[in-house]
Specification:
Layout (H helix, E strand, L loop, with lengths): L9 E5 L5 E6 H10 L3 E6 L6 E5 L1 H18 L5 E6 L5 H17 L2 E7 L8 H14 L4 E10 L2 E8 L2
Parallel strand pairs: 1-4, 5-6
Antiparallel strand pairs: 1-2, 3-4, 6-8, 7-8
Length: about 160
C-alpha cells in the first residue's frame, strides 16, 4: 500500500535515510512524504502499529525485482536423468550404463534407473532386483539411493542422488 491507500490511524514512520522517526498519524506522515517529494509505503502491515517508510516507490519496486532476479540466478535446478536397463543386461553393458549415470551425478543431476520388463520377463521380476542393487553398488562411492527399487507397472524404478 502506498500514500492514500493506507487506512490506519497511526503508523510507525521510518525516514528516507532509514532512521526511526516515531509514531505519527497518517495525515502527518503523508505531509512529510510529500514535502520530501517521495512516497509513503507500508512495509510491515502486520506490525502494531503498521510500519511505513518514506521512499521513492518506483526505486523501491525496481530494487525488489532486482533482488528477486539475483535470488533466481543463485538457485540450482536439479534435473532428473533416466537410465534404462533390461533384465538380461550383460555386465559390460551395465558398467557402460553406470558410467553414464556417474557423469549425470557428477553434474549434480538426479538419476532415475528404470529396469523394464517385457513379455515373459515379468515372470522373473524377483530374480532381477539384483541388477538394480549391483547398479547402486557400482555408484556407491559418489551416490546414494534416494528411493529404493519399486515396481510400477511393467518397470522397476530406483532414484540415485549425489552423496553429501
Amino acid at each position: 500500500m502506498i500514500n492514500e491507500q493506507i487506512r490506519d490511524k497511526e503508523i510507525r514512520l521510518i525516514g528516507e535515510n532509514g532512521e526511526q522517526l516515531g509514531i505519527f498519524p497518517v495525515k502527518e506522515a503523508l505531509a512529510m512524504a510529500k514535502e520530501a517529494e517521495m512516497d509513503l509505503v507500508k512495509i510491515a502491515p502486520q506490525a502494531k502499529p503498521p510500519v511505513c517508510r518514506i521512499i521513492d516507490y518506483g526505486k523501491y519496486k525496481y530494487e525488489l525485482t532486482r533482488k528477486e532476479k539475483e535470488a533466481k540466478k543463485k538457485q540450482k535446478t536439479i534435473e532428473i536423468k533416466e537410465v534404462r536397463l533390461s533384465p538380461n543386461i550383460d555386465t559390460n553393458d551395465l558398467m557402460t550404463k553406470s558410467n553414464m549415470a556417474r557423469k549425470f551425478i557428477d553434474k549434480g543431476d538426479k538419476v532415475k534407473v528404470t529396469l523394464r520388463f517385457r513379455g515373459r520377463e515379468m515372470a522373473h521380476v524377483a530374480n532381477s532386483r539384483h541388477i538394480l542393487d549391483d547398479f547402486a553398488e557400482n555408484l556407491s562411492d559418489i551416490a546414494v539411493v534416494e528411493k529404493a527399487p519399486k515396481m510400477e507397472g511393467r518397470s522397476m524404478t530406483m532414484y540415485l542422488v549425489e552423496k553429501k
